[in-house]
Amino acid sequence: MIILGIESATTQVGCAIAGHEGVLASAHSSRGKRHAEMLTPQIDFVRRQARIELSEISVVAVDIGPGLYTGLRVGISAAMATAFALNVPMIGVTSLDLLAFPVRHSPKLIVAAIDARRGEIFHAFYRQVPGGVQRVTEPAVGAPDDLAGELLARGEDCLLVGDGAVRYAAHFEDLRGVDAAEPGLAHPTASSLVQLAHAQALREEFVPPSEIAPLYLRKPDAVEAKRIAWDRK
Amino acid sequence: MSTAEPSEQLILGIETSCDETAAAVVANGTRVLSNVISSQIDLHARYGGVVPEVASRAHVTAMTPVVAQALLEAGVEPGELHGIAATHGPGLVGSLLVGVSTAKALALVWDLPFVGVNHLEAHLYASFVEEPDLEMPLVVLLVSGGHTMLVLMRGHGDYEVLGQTMDDAAGEAYDKVARQLGLGYPGGPIIDRLAMTGKPTIAFPRPVLNEGYKFSFSGLKTSVINHIRKNPDAKTEDVAASFQEAVVDVLVTKARRAAVETGAKGLATGGGVAANSRLREAVIDACLEDGLTPFLPSRSMCTDNAAMVGAVGWWRLNSDGPSPLDTGATPNLGLPVR
């Protein structure tokens, strides 16, 4: 079974290909907000590095967010089109799950935090279980100070990971027992995606492309505002 | 069974520049095998205009099913296609990116050339989809919610922008006036319908009527708003008819002047406002008087669609070859001029 994974939820964009033996090839780049420009050449490069034909891919996995909306849609659109064109099923994984994956061996409470812009972060909590980690809270969006307050209230040792944790580090640095993961793990990666998706694919936990939906966690501003001040446009 | 002839080149066109998710299969730039449009008008109507984030979200959901439908209706297998074309600008960046990302992924998997299409050029080619033998030079009046311009087409891919709007696009003026009159969205078709029952009794200004080929609709919109404020009892039908008459008068006066002064053989229209019934009447009347050949694409070819994208994709693929796979979206892309 060959899995193509596409990930574009943060300022980084990447893709990876995995088989039974693990990750066969991957590429990630994080400069210049050029997700749409980079992704298609990346997929072509990675499949050549993995020495496979695209027709050998049996599942397309994608990071469904939460993350930066425009970049996220580039990856999801490309992934849905790829799965449609290959006539194969898909697996959607949240960006927060991908952040928790590389630090899964930590016994602490893992707090995945992605920069949501507008002074907020997307976050979810994870706990170590046999064979990996389990998400113990639903993905949510909120102010860094509110998250810091929640960690303070929980009073247990935590490991913060993600670009939201990096950006708002000052909000957490005085909290007792709260550590930050290394900045090199700040972005969800396509390599984590294909590894997580491979386990799900073995359990046949895939869906048709029509069931893949981005996890925005916020309504469009217009929906919140109910009306738009067109006179000022 | 495929409906394609063996000698034909089939292009899958994709359009997502604003609020329509569209895909079409077009043979040799002219024969439309399918033309599927998923409109978001209902989603945006409650806000009185296109909301970019709402549009982008809807494109993601609709895109792949629309492509599948276009292939199904055309009776075409991916292996029979010769290329994938998608609008890469101008338009809303978040919307454009959905179409471009989808098209490039399909092109990569199916090992087909990808062609990035200019949305303005696509509107110019709407006429050629339905009338491949249109004679050039041709003046095209391109009027939509985002653009108002006069283009001289000397040959395929050979354009000159004679003039364009300095402020609002004509379609934008329709939307804003409709909003002021409390008529809802989209303003164009609503005002068009209402104007049929009214009389153009109010002499609204014809901005920059005698100044070359440029347009301005911002002042006209303000005059209409001021008139409504000063005359709250004015009949809405008459205001609509009078506003529409002023817009159409300016558009047609300049378009026919351009056709005569450039020695064009014909006058064609494109863009959503070109579906306006009063404008269509006036263009035909002007062409009859001036001895020009009028060409008015059918209404569904005026508004955003992917058949015109597939048509330009075919012309561009054969003249310039494929676009690179690192093509992105260019929200303010201009018409390519020589």
Word description of this protein:
The complex is a heterodimer of chains A (233) and B (338). Chain A has 233 residues and is α/β, with parallel strands linked by helices. Chain A folds into 2 domains: 124 residues, ATPase, nucleotide binding domain (Nucleotidyltransferase, domain 5, 2-Layer Sandwich); 90 residues, ATPase, nucleotide binding domain (Nucleotidyltransferase, domain 5), CATH 3.30.420. In chain A, 31% of the residues lie in helices and 25% in strands. Chain A contains 7 helices and 11 strands. In chain A, strands 6, 7, 8, 9, 10 and 11 form a 6-stranded mixed sheet that branches. In chain A, helix 1 packs across helix 2. Chain B has a 5-stranded mixed sheet, sandwiched between helices. Chain B has a 5-stranded mixed sheet with strand order 8-7-6-9-10, sandwiched between helices. Chain B contains 11 helices and 10 strands. With 338 residues, chain B is an alpha/beta fold. The N and C termini of chain B lie far apart (42 Å). The longest helix of chain B is centred in the last third of the chain and has 27 residues. Helices cover 44% and strands 20% of the residues of chain B. Chain B folds into 2 domains: 132 residues, ATPase, nucleotide binding domain (Nucleotidyltransferase, domain 5, 2-Layer Sandwich); 167 residues, Nucleotidyltransferase, domain 5 (2-Layer Sandwich), CATH 3.30.420. The model of chain B has no long low-confidence stretch (mean pLDDT 95). Classes of the chains: A alpha/beta (233), B alpha/beta (338). At the A-B interface, helix 1, helix 2 and helix 7 of A face helix 2 and helix 3 of B.
